[in-house]
Amino acid sequence: MRTTDAGGLPAGAEPGGAAGLPNASQLRRLRQELERAWVRWGETAGGSVGGHGDGTAGVRSPGADTAETVDAGNAGLTGTRRAGGGRRRTGPWRPKPGSRTGLGAGPGSGPAAGTLRAEVVESWARSGASVDRACAEAPVSDADAARSRWADSQLRRPIGAVAEELRRITEDAGFVAAVTDETGTILWTCGGRHMRHAAERINFAPGGRWDEQAMGTNALSLALLRGQAATVFSAEHYLSALHGWVCYCAPIRHPDGRVLGVLDLSTTWERSHPLALSTVRLLAAGIEERLREDAAPQAPGRRARSHVAPHGRSRASSQGPEMDAQLRLAVLGDSPRLDRGSDEIPLRPRQLEILTLLALEPEGFTPERLHDALYGERPVSASTFKAEVSHLRSALGGGIATRRYALTRPVDCDAARVAAAVERGDTAAAVTAYAGPLLERSEAPGIVEWRDHLHVALREAVLASPDAALALAFGHHARYDIALHRHALALLAPDDARRGLATARLRASLS
After folding, report:
1. CB of 140 within 8 A of CB of 203?
2. How far apart are CA 359 and CA 142, in angstroms?
3. How many Cβ atoms sit within 10 Å of the Cβ of residue 106?
4. Other CB atoms closer than 10 Å to residue 284's CB: what's the count?
5. Are the C-beta atoms of 216 and 201 separated by less than 8 Å?
6. Rounded to whole angstroms, how far apart are CA atoms 57 and 48?
C-alpha cells in the first residue's frame, strides 16, 4: 500500500491545517476506521475484541474522548454472512483492495484512502501467539538493571549529544522520547512531566519491554524487526490500551551494521504530525554519525586544540566532546577533584556536589528537584542556585543541559562506577573502585542520600559474598563495623595470617 512519512498524513499536512489537508476530524475518522479493521481481525483470529457475549464487539481506546464505539456486529465486519443463519467464512479476514481501513494517502486523497498495511496485519498475526489482548502495560524486566546497562551502553554518549534537542522537542511539542537496546527494552526516556507520567502508566519507561513478543504490534518492535523507520498510529497497535498513542521510531545502527537499539518519539494520536518521522530519522542519523566517530581510529597527530585558561592552566578547546579530553570525577575518599586529561579543573564544593549528582543520575533533574537535593529546607534563592550551575557549566566548557539539568557529555565518575558495579552484581569491582565515603564533608541532602546508599549497598554485597578479601578490603572504610569484621574472621582459615588484621579491627570496634 501507499505510505507517507508521517503516519498516514500526506506530505506537508498538519492536524488542523489548511483546507485539503488532514485536520483533527479526519484524524478521528481514520482512527475509527482502523478500530473497525482491528475488531474485524480480532473476531477472525481468536474471538471478539472486547466482546459483549452476543456476537458483537466494541472498542473504546483510552484517551479518545471523541472516538465512537465501534459495533462490529451491526457493521457486518466479522467475515460472517448474516443472512440465512449467519454462516461463517473460513480463513482470516483481509481488507478489500482500496478499502478505507488504513494509513497511507496520496497527495490530495485524504488519510482514509489507503488500505491496511501488510506489515501491520502480519505483525498482528504474530502477536496473537504471545500477547494477551487485555494487557494494559508493558512487562518490566528490571528498571535498575536497565539504568545500569544504560550507563555502559555505546549509545549513551551519542544520545547525550542530542539530549538537549530531544528534551526541547518533547517539551515543546508534547511528546515523550525513548531509547531502547537491541532487545526492545527501554533504557532512557525524556519528555515533559505530563507526557512522561502518561507513558509511565503503560511502563513506557526504563526497564519496560516493547518487543513484539511482549507488547504486540508497535513502532518500536516494527523498527527492530524490519530494520527501518516505522510509524504505528492508534488502532494499528495490537493492544487496545495503546490505541490512544502514535509512535515514530528509527533504528540506530553500529558502524558494522548491527542494530544497537531504537530511537522513539511518541505522543497521543490527535497530535500526529507529518514531520515527526522525518525528525526521528534525522536524529537517528546524527546518533549514528557520532557512533562512527567513536569507532574510527584516531588519526596520527590529531590532538585536541588547547588554550590557556584564566587561572593559567592549559584547558582543552570547547569545540565539543570529540575534541576534548575525558573528564574524570573522583568524589570518593579524602581528595575530591575533577580532571580533564592531565589537568585539574578547580571547582568549589557546591559545584562538585552538583556535578556528582548529575553524574550519578544521568536522566537529570528538574530545577526544583536539584535545588532540593542541594539545599533541602535552607532558604537559598533561585538566582544563587542558578549561578552555581552556570559557573559549573562555564568551568566545563558547556556540557550541562539548560531546561532539565543533565550532563550532555560523558563524565567518568568513580561513584557512578561503584553504583553500576553493585547493580550488576560485580562486588569485587565495586570494592576496588570504592575509595571511601562520597563527599564526606558534604551535607547536601542529595549527596547524603547517595553516600548512605552506596555504603549500605556495598556493605550488603560484601556480607553476602564468601570472599574474605572483599570483607577485609571494605573493612578499611568501615573500621567500626562489628558485623563486617566478624564476617571476615568467619571466612578466614585458622592459619590465615590476615586473621590478625580482622581481629584487631574487631577489637577496636568493640572497645
Report:
1. yes
2. 21
3. 12
4. 22
5. no
6. 6
pLDDT tier at 5, thresholds 50, 70, 90: very low
SS3 355: helix
344, 423, 436 from 414: Cα distances, Å: 16, 14, 10
Q: What is the DSSP letter of 305?
A: -
Q: How far is CA 327 from the centre of its chain?
A: 24
Q: How far apart, in Å, are the Cα atoms of 491 and each of 475, 480, 481, 501, 502?
A: 14, 18, 16, 13, 10
482's enclosing H/E stretch is: helix 482-491
DSSP E strand boundaries for 76-222: 80-81, 87-88, 176-180, 186-191
Calculate mean pLDDT across residues 422-445. Answer: 93
Q: Enter the pTM of the model.
A: 0.48
Furthest C-alpha separation in the chain? 95
The pLDDT assigned to 398 comes to 84
The sign one gets for the Cα dihedral 352, 357, 363, 364 is negative
Q: How far is CA 47 from CA 54, 77, 135, 233, 298, in A?
A: 12, 13, 16, 23, 60
Helix crossing, 414-423 with 143-152: angle to 10°? 130
Higher pLDDT, residue 417 or 72:
417
Does the pLDDT value for residue 122 go beyond 50? yes
Q: pLDDT for 436-487, tens place per residue?
A: 999 999 999 999 999 999 999 999 999 999 999 999 999 999 888 999 999 9
User: How many residues are listed for the chain in this entry?
Assistant: 511
Parallel, antiparallel or unpaired: strands 80-81 and 230-233: unpaired
Mean pLDDT on 255-260? 90
Whole-angstrom Cα distance, residue 7 to residue 278? 11
Q: What is residue 249's three-state secondary structure? A: strand
CA 277 from chain centre, in angstroms, equals: 18
* Rounded-to-integer distance, Cα 261 and Cα 178, Å: 10
Q: Are strands 186-191 and 337-340 parallel, antiparallel or unpaired?
A: unpaired
Report H helices in 45-97: 72-75, 83-86
Read off the pLDDT of residues 54-108 as tens digits, 9 standing for 90 and up.
333 333 333 333 333 333 322 222 233 333 333 333 333 333 333 333 333 322 2
Residue 237 CB contacts under 8 Å (≥ 6 apart), including other chains: 216, 217, 218, 243, 245
Q: What is the reported pLDDT for 80? A: 32
Cell 459483549 belongs to: 52
